[in-house]
Amino acid sequence: MPGSGNCLCGSIAFEYTGEPALTALCHCTACQQWGGSAFSSNVAVLTTNFAITKGTPKTWARTGDLSGKKHHLFFCGDCGTSIFSQPEGMPGVTQIKSGNMKNSNIPIMAEIFVTRRRDFVTAVAGSKQAPEMP
Ligand SMILES: [Zn+2]
Ligand SMILES: [Zn+2]
């Protein structure tokens, strides 16, 4: 199902077409820090299916602990919302932070970096569990 969304202040908006390639919770410490939360909720789509429809996000690249590859993070320069990311380890994939989507209540296919999951968070029933990156 296609989707769309925007940052908290509305300066940046996006949309995607087609079906997500993956929906996943990530428990890695970088996601915990970037989102200021216990985990991130991601909808991965093909970048060719993804478009920014309003504004220009700021970007910053983090180098992965395990992969050594850059992970480009995109966020709103006005309100600071984490909007999406593009990992060089997964060329052609855009990971949308699903909390920004108009319909974010979509099933979670997988959880990754579950070895770093916080003690108070339980696994999503029926989702694939990966200790690190699958
Ligand atoms: Zn904003
Ligand atoms: Zn992560």
From TrEMBL:
Residues 3-119 form the CENP-V/GFA domain. SUPFAM superfamilies: Mss4-like (SSF51316). Transmembrane segments: none annotated. InterPro entries: CENP-V/GFA, Mss4-like_sf. Keywords: Lyase, Metal-binding, Zinc. One of its GO terms (molecular function) is metal ion binding. It comes from the Eukaryota. Belongs to the Gfa family. This is CENP-V/GFA domain-containing protein. It comes from Penicillium argentinense.
